[in-house]
Amino acid sequence: MPDSSTYVLAGVDAGKEWERLDTMHNAVDNYLGHKLTPAPSLGHPRKILELGAGSGAWAIQAAKQFPDAEVIAVDISPLPPRPTPVNMKSLQADVAQALPFEPESFDIVHIRYALIHLPHGTAHIPKLGQLVAPGGLLLIDDISLPIITGDAPAVRESFETLAVYMRSKHQDPRIADTLEAKLRESGLFSDVDAFKVSLPLNTPIADPAAQRLSRAFKDSITNVFVGELPAEVRATGFTEELQKAYRDEVDVKEWDGIVEAMWTWSRKL
Ligand SMILES: C[S@@+](CC[C@H](N)C(=O)[O-])C[C@H]1O[C@@H](n2cnc3c(N)ncnc32)[C@H](O)[C@@H]1O
């Protein structure tokens, strides 16, 4: 399938990207105490859909936690060739298009850090909600990228260049700010709950767990900013000079910016 993704890292070295996503998954997993979501209970799901699955780490964990459930992991790019539980399968498909599933056919639909990369991200909420069976859960985990303050021009320019690129693709780099309201406005859910944590990227945090998660986000974003980038992203201003200047500043200069990390769980009417 041609990769028509507007994902900022579409087409880069897949192995390195899967490694970056696995590392971030492990950090979130530790933060959540090895739970798939902060939602109080997932019940006994029989069918679970994971969208924008990346390395498949969340889907693998879900399949292990619920061995009697069928787990389907969807991404626009192939998942890595790795051993997966027998109750998990993968499918290459574009979440921005119609998906080949019956309405109301999943007990859980989960999408993490992927809605932010879809054009008009929150406009997809009704389509995702329609895939959830009555009484089932839509789990959306996403972030708002930081606005940078302080004395680090290359750090600020890198985040601003990413935001400009994303907005040119109709993606919302601050999607977590409106997620909860958009879920409520959809009218599809009896309850919409959310847990949000604000993570300064470059100032020590008193809570050690939040500090570790913040460090993981900082490292993950730094890997993107200093690594291989598609030509189209470079053309928006992500030059090699900017990448070098970012590398020189990121752990040395005084700057900050808050990542808003959000987990939502919405019960289908
Ligand atoms: C930041 S990664 C997150 C991966 C995974 N959800 C996780 O949390 O580790 C975003 C993922 O969304 C996928 N993606 C982007 N646009 C997509 C689309 N239109 N349809 C399906 N997947 C898409 C990318 O290929 C990538 O694997």
Task: Report on the architecture of this protein.
The chain is α/β, with parallel strands linked by helices and 269 residues long. It has a single domain (14-268), classed as Vaccinia Virus protein VP39 (Rossmann fold), CATH 3.40.50. The protein is 33% helix and 23% strand. It has 8 helices and 9 strands. The chain has helices at residues 14-31, 57-65, 125-130, 153-168, 179-185, 208-226, 231-234, 240-249; strands spanning 47-51, 70-75, 88-92, 106-112, 132-144, 149-150, 189-200, 255-256, 258-268. The strands form 2 sheets. A 7-stranded mixed beta sheet has the order 3-2-1-4-5-9-7, sandwiched between helices. α3 (125-130) links the parallel β4 (106-112) and β5. The chain is globular and about 50 Å long. The chain starts with 13 loop residues before the first helix and ends with a strand. The relative contact order is 0.17. The model has no long low-confidence stretch (mean pLDDT 96). The structure holds S-adenosylmethionine (SAM). S-adenosylmethionine binds next to α1 and α2.
